[in-house]
Amino acid sequence: MTQPLITDVETEFGIGRLHRYRASEPMKAVLVLGHGAGGGIDARDLTAIAESFAGSDLEIVLIEQPWVVEGKKVAPAPTRLDACWIPLVHAARGRDLPLIVGGRSAGARVACRTADDVGAIGILALAFPLHPPGRPAMSRIDELTASGLPTLVMQGARDPFGSSRAVKANTKGYPTVTVVSIAAADHGFKVPAAATSTTDRALKQITDGITRESWRWFQR
User: Fold this and answer.
1) 184-213 as b/e, with b when 16 or more CB fall inside 10 Å?
2) Which of 17, 96, 145, 202 is a plausible cystine mate for 185, CB 3.0–4.6 Å?
């Protein structure tokens, strides 16, 4: 397994941590990804992306929010997550390269809310939580679409926080948003044993989709 370069960064609310998977030269861009509210950077989708693109022309930086570094179990309020995320992203960017931001679940929400603040050219949303499970009326679609940036959404077909079909239906009329449906996958991109697909195939579909669709981030 590829070993990242780990750097601690001071924020207003504690120390965050960068896990940088070096790219080859010349580097094309930096993709900065955050974790969700219920887990860390060892999530299967974040790990798969870091491993798949290590040594490519796309540098991957996984960010641990201060609350995770401190060993806490509950994420703070969105305003605090955003306040910590912004300086961490600036530190992760390093050189003046095109910046893509993203994350899984709550991390995707943070990236969407702050994309303009950090000067991103695009967004990668993994398992975007369109609504709380069983409560589709509490839509967060405005967060996903507000930036107007090219946004690539990887969404499980069985995600209880909003299936890929639901996300596609809610993003009609937003040409900057592209939704890739991950077959039979849930919110963590796990595929049940009885399905015709597998979890490994779901992760491969994610990394292949990033490779195939990433041109949208550089079209401006």
Assistant:
1) bbbbbbbbeeebebbbebbbebbbebbeeb
2) 202
Confirm whether pTM is higher than 0.70.
Answer: yes
What 8-state DSSP symbol labels residue 100? E
- How many domains are contained in the chain? 1
- Distance CA(187)–CA(126), nearest Å, equals 9
What is the pLDDT, as a whole number, of residue 168?
98
C-alpha to C-alpha distance for 108 and 202, rounded to whole angstroms: 19
List CB contacts of 196: < 8 A, sequence separation 6 or more: 183, 184
**Residue pLDDT, tens place only, 178-188:** 999 999 999 99
| Residue 93 lies in domain | 5-218
What CATH number has the domain bearing residue 52? 3.40.50.1820
- Helices marked H in 94-198 — which ranges? 106-118, 141-145, 164-170
Please state, in angstroms and rounded to a whole number, the distance separating the CA atoms of residues 33 and 59.
11
